[in-house]
Amino acid sequence: xxxxxxxxxxxxxxxxxxxxxxxxxxxxxxxxxxxxxxxxxxxxxxxxxxxxxxxxxxxxxxxxxxxxxxxxxxxxxxxxxxxxxxxxxxxxxxxxxxxxxxxxxxxxxxxxxxxxxxxxxxxxxxxxxxxxxxxxxxxxxxxxxxxxxxxxxxxxxxxxxxxxxxxxxxxxxxxxxxxxxxxxxxxxxxxxxxxxxxxxxxxxxxxxxxxxxxxxxxxxxxxxxxxxxxxxxxxxxxxxxxxxxxxxxxxxxxxxxxxxxxxxxxxxxxxxxxxxxxxxxxxxxxxxxxxxxxxxxxxxxxxxxxxxxxxxxxxxxxxxxxxxxxxxxxxxxxxxxxxxxxxxxxxxxxxxxxxxxxxxxxxxxxxxxxxxxxxxxxxxxxxxxxxxxxxxxxxxxxxxxxxxxxxxxxxxxxxxxxxxxxxxxxxxxxxxxxxxxxxxxxxxxxxxxxxxxxxxxxxxxxxxxxxxxxxxxxxxxxxxxxxxxxxxxxxxxxxxxxxxxxxxxxx
Length: 507
Description:
21 helices, CATH 2.40.50.140, six-stranded mixed beta sheet, about 50% helix
């Protein structure tokens, strides 16, 4: 039996003899599937033998010959086995400082008609190999479309561990890489002319649908929401960008680049743009990472005639670029030659300027969370703690450090809470003073005669408790007619709600 004989020659390492016999059998019966299988496996062994950079030409030659056999779709075993050899060779290219993409393209072109098992371990291995070359590979999108993101195995969706470090799943890597390539755009040739790179809006819209599915099914993946925002931004859909990006931004709010990207969603005249840039620059980040952010805010500062602040940013840009021997952009050089730059002194830093906008920036993230009006019942200045009351069902305390200045008892404030409180402690996202027309059912005006029972040092106006400190402060006497404001308060001793005066306006 010819197939068996060729196989025995292969297994004993006699590939020349195996190939000779397989060729003879194929010439006699070119349509015989067993003859095609026989020589296909010989080609596989030669591929395995030549899967090195030095033997690339031999590898391609045998790959072309395997392709020429035109094996039917159900002959997957040989292709699946060859996938490992193809992947192995691609991986060897990927490690080069300067990848020879002509060879990568050649390999891709010659496997397009191969019938691989999808999904399978070998098919995923093939993807991982080509993926390693994606950064400067102009045909990556074409390859990814051919490979098909629907063909990932269940294992591909799981993160891996390498040398004690957690590595994101190949699926998440794939969606990130595809997004980056879409954002880069592609060059097109029209009538012999190479047009500049441009994004393919139709392709982006198609991919966004797939991105939505991966975001919904895998909320543990951190970066797909980020790239969805980038792609939406590329399409010019500002409103949808915010809707989709905000949840991601909340998780990564301490990373400067998140705020820089958020700034890109707003028009130059929108104050939220400078607020986001200020927030980005206020975070602890090495100066060399901030040069693009600083350049963006400098443009705005110049338009606002804030020349000292603009010069401060430019000098920090120059410092970072000079320290790293980076080229000075033309725009920066032009700014330094202008009169305003020469005639204004720079500041030590712009942190006081950034501070003006930090609350506005934070509010962008939490605009979807409603503000709640509460009243301050007590302030612990040493610990920066506010005790508050909204109503009988919502009251407690929270830290106000860095969020509001000089709070005092009786102030109405608008607060965005982060979830429900635990043992009375609430986390808050934003705090600001309430407007004069704000409504809070935990405060009311009162008027009436002060009732006191001697020798007690406290009193009541109807059901409102007036504590001794207010009586002493205002030199109140029994039966005095007084006006003031009272706050809803819980009496721990009596285990009941009541009202207590917090201020006296007139006697």
